[in-house]
Write a structure and sequence with these properties.
single chain, alpha/beta, TIM Barrel, eight-stranded parallel barrel, two-stranded antiparallel ribbon, 9 helices, 10 strands, 15% strand, globular
Length: 297
Amino acid sequence: MRLGAHLSVAKGLPALLANADELGATAIQIFARNPRGRGETKVTDGEAAAFRKGLRARNAALYIHAPYYVQVGAADARNRRISAEVAAADLVKGDRLGAAGVIVHFGGTVDEENPDASTKHTVGTIKAALKQAGPTKCRLLLEVSAGRKRVGATFEQIRDILDGVDEPSRLGVCLDTCHLFTAGFDIRGAGATKTLDRFAKTVGLRKLKAIHLNDTQSDLGQGLDRHFHIGQGRIGEAAFRNLLRDPRLKNMDFLLETPKEGWGEPKRLPKGKGAPPLDADAKNLSTLRRLAGTAAR
């Protein structure tokens, strides 16, 4: 099991590894480019090689989260074309950096009159991304959606999309506890284990490659993606304890996407002044280690 968080690359890859070390994080998620724009973070071959070496030395796993505008299930054809291009570029960069996966959102709303249409065009977008990327070791990971009417909000549709692409060695799934809860999966307490049982039966645990651990400020089934600190939101600690201690997930990579502030007085940096503080990540990771039973190790 590896635990970590989404961290900033604002100060470069060496600083990213230093931040991970400070947190004791062995799973790291980053944006490889501006999450809301088209600008890419440039990395030289030497920097990439040194970073890969650093990951190996720490036995750490890296994940790249695609920008928010990458929506492989979008209804708009232009959006899907751009999404395929950017996802492909991130897969190539993922190989350069030694990343295990590029995580993408589905985006888009299921057409209730023709629900199969969203599955079909999502399959097409993913195939285009994989083709443009060429052969990569880095997988494309599809993240479960928040909201019942969204593409990728049900395990059945995720299964059908994976089957439609039919490239099992290049694809996987990323679950997100906030997304699951706001999509209507009651993962509170023992519900977390039951939801994992359902995923295992419908999609298969071999396809699950990473899990985002986020509490939420949203209500069950509300469809709002509002991440919050572990145990301080509507989901509660018991769900995270059950996931972290489930023997089926003993080798899973768990990643926080919780707020960077909110513990006591928020610590906000002036615009352009580098990475956010690590205080909240440290406290959320401490909570996870306690719930996993590894706090004293």
